[in-house]
Specification:
alpha+beta; 3 helices; 13% strand; elongated
């Protein structure tokens, strides 16, 4: 069983979030719910993340330009 591209992206977003927030990544990883996808004919089963992490960015320049 392998990770899907969605699951790999979720792991990368968790890493990015922990770097931006300077926080521990382990809690985020422990809270992820992995689910297997239906196996395609001749393909290998993949894992997906039901609850990928949300990363929010504050861009003060964008809000000033909107005015």
């Amino acid at each position: 069983m392998k990770l899907s591209k969605q699951a790999m992206g979720s792991l990368m977003m968790a890493l990015q979030k922990s770097l931006l927030e300077q926080s521990d990544i382990t809690e985020t990883l422990q809270n992820m719910d992995f689910v297997p996808a239906a196996e395609e004919e001749g393909g290998e089963a993949e894992l997906y993340v039901k609850n990928p992490p949300l990363v929010k960015f504050n861009n003060p320049e964008a809000s000033q330009e909107d005015k």
